[in-house]
Amino acid sequence: MGFCVKLRLLDLHGNLAKYKYGLCDKPFDGVFETDVTKVLSGELPGDTTMEEVINIINPCTGEGKQLRSAIQAFTAIYRHYRETNEYMVDGGYYS
């Protein structure tokens, strides 16, 4: 069985991005904030926890304590930003 997370950029203040996210087969109701530039620049040390990188405002329906959905959404955002130097507006993670 595959794993699917969808996401959409809600707001961008400087480098702080707020995203809506959710599992593809569940309500699209999670919200988190992140600043990818702090990760890419090294401002956040390599041992920084994902809970510090991703500020969960409201976990999505079906999100577990490990925050897998939010982490996979962040991974998609991070990869897109690294390639384009822009935040992803709409997309997801599929495996």
What does this structure look like?
The chain has 95 residues and is an alpha+beta fold. It contains three helices and five strands; from the N terminus they run E-E-E-H-H-E-H-E. The chain has helices spanning 36-41, 50-53, 68-84; strands at residues 4-13, 16-23, 30-34, 54-58, 90-94. The protein has a five-stranded antiparallel β-sheet with strand order 4-3-2-1-5. The model has no long low-confidence stretch (mean pLDDT 91).
**So what's the overall shape?**
globular
* pLDDT < 50 stretches: none
Strand content: 25-35%
The oligomeric state is: single chain
- Give the SSE order as H and E letters: EEEHHEHE
Query: What kind of sheet is the major sheet?
Result: 5 strands, antiparallel
Gap from first CA to last CA? 9 Å
Question: Cα-atom Rg, whole angstroms?
Answer: 12 Å
**What's the count of strands?**
5
Structural classification: alpha+beta
Q: How many helices does DSSP assign?
A: 3
Write down the overall mean pLDDT.
91
Q: Strand order within the widest sheet?
A: 4-3-2-1-5
The helix content, as a percent range, equals 25-40%
Write the layout of secondary structure elements.
Blueprint: E1 4-13, E2 16-23, E3 30-34, H1 36-41, H2 50-53, E4 54-58, H3 68-84, E5 90-94
Antiparallel strand pairs: 1-2, 1-5, 2-3, 3-4
